[in-house]
Amino acid sequence: MPPMLFAGSAKPPADKFNLSLTSPPMENMQKRILQILVTLTLWSGTTARELSVVKPEEVGMSSAKLAKVDEVLKGFVADGKLAGGIVAIARKGKVVHFGTYGKMDLERDKAMKPDSIFRIYSMSKAITTVAALILFDEGKYELADPVSKYIPEFEELSVWKEGQAEPTKRQMTVRDLMRHTSGLSYGFVGNSAVEKRYKKDKPIDRAGDLPTMIKKLSDIPLAFEPGTKWQYSVSIDVLGRLVEIWSGQSFEDFLAERICKPLDMKDTAFDVPKGKVDRFTANYAPNGSGKLRLIDDPAKSRYLTPAGLASGGGGLVSTTRDYLRFLQMVLNSGELHGKRLLKKKTVRLMTRNQLPKKLMPIRIGPIPRVGVGFGLGFSTRVSMGPWDPGGKVGEFGWGGAASTHYWVSPKDELIVVTMEQVMPYSFMTEWAVKKLIYDSIEN
User: Fold this and answer.
1) Is residue 373 part of a domain?
2) What residue numbers bound the domain in which 42 lies?
3) What is the pTM of this model?
4) Domains in the chain, number
């Protein structure tokens, strides 16, 4: 096993659960983090180099202040607001906190595991955008290219205006897809004629496929002229189809070969295979009386069977470890442990705002996210305001429908991933721990 797993000690542990290190004594929290990551590696049999584990003080953070994160999450579990969750924190490429809390499955009384598998929903979007940008770096297309250059069905799209469908005045571009200015929608942002068509036609039905999705979308009018508005949408699912066209591979195979394999994201996929079902989390929703009700049983979930439509916008499952590795690659300007996926200048396009001021701030629902723009795949913080006051300018991130979330602060060399399974989406965990984590940075 690689020495990096043991935080500088070349001597492996005596067994899975009782670490015997020759390096200087570590505080309990660091021992626990190390034990978690070693156990993950032993379970998986991987030979990949892992992110190393250090005391927070070694990278300018406070152990005492980070302990408050544990208090918050344990409180959420005790109050029944969460069944369980994980909070992982890395700084300067090193893991300083990996907390597991509560249950991954209340009905079966199963404790949350370090390698638990989560439905990450829209956290899939950044991975899909990286896939597309790998091909951009290879010269397969330009960001300003009209989507119709590669998907002929999008050549003559219509847009809904004043109660009727009219021909679009401007072609949708690849850049529009990546920054959600395409004119596409999701079917949940109102009750207009366009939204009703999304609800009726179900273009991203998991039982379908990507070519069928394209045909359905081409028949639905756009919600607005491309480039004139920011609206969350199925744009990244269309991007997944473009990856297939540009690469000549299925979208699933491209992700597996070009992202998951080089980054050793061994648990990131569109379904949960039989051998991993015991690590698959249950998904919950509030029951209206302060408790949680089961909405997706991991033993009966649709994720146990292969998806027909590989949804690049929301179809992946993953683990905290896998997503940490993905984000570390992004923070490292496109490279992890000698494996380069993207050019540095391409990563800058992802992590810096690409929206003109007139399209900001972004919003999902009625509340504007003041100070927040969008890059190619991530939301980006460009100024402070009433939205998310615990954040920082320069931060980028996003989340998933079951309340998973992540953010990265390049200035602080900081990555945070929070995992849980509660729908609809809640900012509860992110907003409760964000300021605590930033306040723990002392140098």
Assistant:
1) no
2) 1-54
3) 0.91
4) 1
